[in-house]
Amino acid sequence: MNLIELLKAALFGVIEGITEWLPISSTGHMILFNEFMPLQVSEEFYSMFEVVIQLGAILAVVVIFWNSIFPFQKPPYDPRRIRTGLISYLRMDIVMLWLKILVACVPAAVIGLLFNEKFEALFYNYTTVAIALIVFGIAFLIIETRHKGKRARVNSLEEITFQLALLIGVFQLIAAIFPGTSRSGATIVGALLLGVSRTVAAEFTFFLAIPVMFGASLLKIVQFGFHFTGMEVAILLTGMIVAFVVSILVIKFLMGYIKKHDFKVFGWYRIILGIVVLLYFGLIAK
């Protein structure tokens, strides 16, 4: 077993765990890292790997927010309670949250299934990634400047309507089309524009990632097939496990950070990274 390739997979896991949740584009960072330290695998496997590694990050969301997303929970004792059986354990507020999440997934799911391969052929290149990094970095700066001192209209997950969820899903669609946009970045920007508070925008973005990434990963595995070599399995599991551990730390950090700070620092970081990508691939790499 090649320990060097496993070490690379672990580093990919670190990058995924950090960049998936911070609004700075995991795709942009993956492209850069793969340029300097590529995995010695087939193009087909790497295309699958960079998507399926996200499952590790998603499991971190499930673990951290389990009580907020699992609809079956033991109700508190109340002698006046009428409902009995399984339905008495069902939390309708969480059921409604999942319905809104599914509504928000519709735009990206429909367009992604129909045009995923075409989008990859057209837009999965360093120029698109760099431009998306810079454009959404500027968007963060503008939106945060405009919203400074203003009170958000939506301050809890329960206040998100089905219409609002669908509009947030449209912003997620932008990330599905243009790599470098950042799925979390696009949905957070969209939510902020629509009057959602930073904390609620981040939480809804985390939850929205669960069905999106599970669906994308399943699609990639089916396209790749289930014929893995032992080394490929080891690389995939290493990346996912590391992404899971790092994601736990990053999500907790981000939820604490945004309670006291805005997203401007991520906007500046995106702009700088976009310029670095353009300079490297446009000048140095040539």
TrEMBL record:
GO molecular-function term, one example from the UniProt record: undecaprenyl-diphosphatase activity
Domain of life: Bacteria
Record's keyword annotation contains 4Fe-4S: no
Keywords: Antibiotic resistance, Cell membrane, Cell shape, Cell wall biogenesis/degradation, Hydrolase, Membrane, Peptidoglycan synthesis, Transmembrane, Transmembrane helix
Cellular localization per UniProt: Cell membrane
Transmembrane segments annotated in the record for this chain: 51-73, 94-115, 121-143, 164-181, 201-222, 234-255, 267-285
InterPro entries: UppP (IPR003824)
GO terms (BP aspect): cell wall organization; peptidoglycan biosynthetic process; regulation of cell shape; response to antibiotic
Keyword field contains Cell membrane: yes
Matches recorded under Pfam families: BacA
Family: Belongs to the UppP family.
Miscellaneous comment as given in the Swiss-Prot or TrEMBL entry: Bacitracin is thought to be involved in the inhibition of peptidoglycan synthesis by sequestering undecaprenyl diphosphate, thereby reducing the pool of lipid carrier available.
Function (record text): Catalyzes the dephosphorylation of undecaprenyl diphosphate (UPP). Confers resistance to bacitracin.
Name the record gives this protein: Undecaprenyl-diphosphatase
Source organism (scientific name): Anaerotignum lactatifermentans
